[in-house]
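Please fill in the sequence for the structure shown.

STRUCTURE ENCODING:
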């Protein structure tokens, strides 16, 4: 049976009990998309067995993806858009059945925008190991139970292997461009190095050439927040009797991450020492506005993401080292044949500009020479998702080259 049809006809009665709780306002054990949930704008491709760098393999892998625009008869106008850690395939479109949040790049992708869907055929997959339709920890393993904590370790290269299999399944041998930010930028770099013949242009936005010790350390405390949640249960929380998963740990990890993604200046300007209630802060019992802001986003996140996926994807990011087994970063970058855009953000404290400078200096075909485009923004790492005009202008310039 076609996977799309199968997903549509699974009766609601098989939806895990934890999903039913979410309809009543309780946070579900997982925010993952599950068979039986509304499909929304997703499409699904079975790419089969994926061999992993670790020696393990995933059988019968499914990749969820969305598309916009029309593929040309020459099949030469495809643009691959790759999401960041907490993104998914829903780049453009409203929130609604099947999509707990609105598209994450509506100011960049669409008719008449930088990635003009009247010209380009845009494909956006949910990454392998993710939780919004692609095979991941919340998916069923061959034994009929969720993979959970048994899901194998993935690298960025493993995820690109799956993306390349998706491209083959769709009959696309060469992309006009591969574009991505943050974790997506790691995938872009791997595409350009492992399959230079398949990529005409690349846009590397706010991503590093390799994960540094500092970045791995920042990630490690988020992972521990999830694993320390008593409801985590080694990752086997999907059928918890009380319907509750490690939502506190996942929300805390999200709060930590947001402090990496934004800047001290922005938080100070927005919130200062403002108080959420009329209670005297010196007397206790109240909350600062910035604490409530972080709580809101942490709790909201638990309704659209999965704790096990957060672990798998974060560890994949930690694995990122473009030069591993290739003689170093410079030697790896020398393999890239694509016309290249590298964009960094002056206030990014998660993936600082030094990384983008190293990438740009190592590329032979940068549209801005050996220097990255520097975006000046108060929003820190998240600026590539927020500063649509500046980011869109840079991407439009690449696509015109």
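FILLED IN BY: designer on duty
SEQUENCE:
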């Amino acid at each position: 049976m076609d996977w799309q049809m199968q997903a549509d006809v699974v009766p609601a009665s098989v939806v895990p009990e934890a999903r039913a709780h979410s309809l009543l306002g309780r946070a579900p054990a997982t925010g993952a998309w599950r068979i039986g949930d509304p499909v929304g704008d997703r499409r699904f491709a079975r790419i089969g067995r994926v061999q992993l760098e670790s020696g393990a393999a995933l059988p019968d892998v499914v990749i969820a993806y969305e598309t916009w625009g029309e593929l040309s008869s020459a099949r030469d106008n495809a643009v691959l858009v790759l999401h960041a850690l907490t993104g998914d395939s829903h780049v453009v479109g409203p929130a609604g059945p099947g999509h707990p949040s609105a598209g994450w790049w509506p100011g960049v992708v669409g008719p008449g925008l930088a990635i003009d869907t009247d010209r380009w055929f845009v494909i956006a997959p949910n990454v392998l190991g993710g939780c919004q339709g692609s095979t991941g920890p919340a998916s069923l393993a061959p034994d009929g139970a969720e993979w959970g904590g048994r899901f194998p370790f993935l690298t960025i290269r493993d995820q690109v292997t799956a993306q390349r299999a998706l491209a083959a399944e769709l009959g696309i041998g060469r992309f006009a461009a591969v574009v991505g930010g943050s974790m997506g930028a790691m995938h872009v770099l791997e595409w350009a190095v492992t399959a230079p013949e398949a990529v005409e242009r690349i846009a590397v936005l706010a991503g590093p050439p390799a994960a540094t010790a500092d970045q791995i350390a920042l990630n490690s405390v988020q992972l521990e927040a999830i694993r320390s949640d008593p409801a985590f249960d080694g990752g086997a929380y999907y059928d918890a009797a009380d319907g509750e998963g490690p939502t506190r740990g996942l929300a805390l990890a999200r709060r930590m991450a947001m402090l990496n993604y934004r800047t001290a200046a922005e938080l100070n300007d927005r919130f200062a020492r403002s108080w959420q209630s009329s209670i005297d802060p010196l007397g206790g019992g109240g909350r600062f506005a910035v604490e409530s802001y972080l709580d809101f986003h942490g709790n909201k996140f638990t309704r659209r993401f999965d704790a096990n996926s957060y672990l798998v994807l974060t560890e994949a990011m930690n694995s990122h080292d473009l030069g591993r087994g290739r003689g170093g970063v410079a030697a790896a970058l020398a393999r890239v044949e694509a016309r290249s855009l590298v964009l960094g953000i002056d206030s990014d404290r998660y993936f600082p500009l030094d990384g983008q400078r190293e990438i740009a200096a190592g590329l032979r075909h940068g549209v801005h020479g050996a220097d990255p485009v520097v975006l000046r923004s108060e929003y820190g790492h998240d600026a590539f998702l927020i500063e649509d005009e500046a980011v869109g202008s840079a991407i439009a310039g690449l696509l015109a080259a």
